[in-house]
Amino acid sequence: MIDALLTDDDIASLIASKSGLARSVLQRSTRICDLGLRLDAYMAVLVAIEDRFDVEIDDLVGADCATLGALMDCLKARIVEQAAPPCRAA
Questions:
Q1: Which element (helix H / strand E) includes 79?
Q2: The whole model's pTM is what?
Q3: What pLDDT is attached to residue 59?
Q4: Could you identify which of 69, 71, 78, 90 might form a hypothetical disulfide with 65, taking C-beta atoms 3.0 to 4.6 angstroms apart as the criterion?
Q5: What pLDDT band is residue 1 in, cutting at 50, 70 and 90?
């Protein structure tokens, strides 16, 4: 099971290690489009996030995730959602 207490630093550190970007440029307010990643590098980062945190993020990278902070929040919410036990019908 994935740790539901995932931090922004966990996510930013993974992004830094997979993208080659300095960790210091990966702030919550940083716009994803300002990272300057080529499409193949960005896709590699997304795949690494999915693999490491066992979450699908295809719908997390749209307009609602223009900044790294928004992406981090969506990712953390998705992980918490997936960690919750399924509801049972009465």
A1: helix 68-83
A2: 0.76
A3: 67
A4: 71
A5: very low
Q: d(Cα 15, Cα 85) in Å, to the nearest integer?
A: 29
Instruction: Determine contact, residues 14/23, Cβ cutoff 8 Å.
Output: no
Surface-to-core class of residue 53, CB atoms within 10 Å of its CB (0-12 exposed, 13-18 middle, 19+ buried): buried
Q: Tens digits of per-residue pLDDT, 26-66?
A: 999 999 889 998 888 888 888 888 888 888 877 666 657 88
Paired residues of 67 in beta bridges: 31
C-alpha distance from residue 61 to each of 25, 64, 70 (Å)? 19, 7, 9
Domains of the chain (ranges, CATH numbers): 8-81 (1.10.1200.10)
Residue 90 CB-half CA count within 13 A: 0
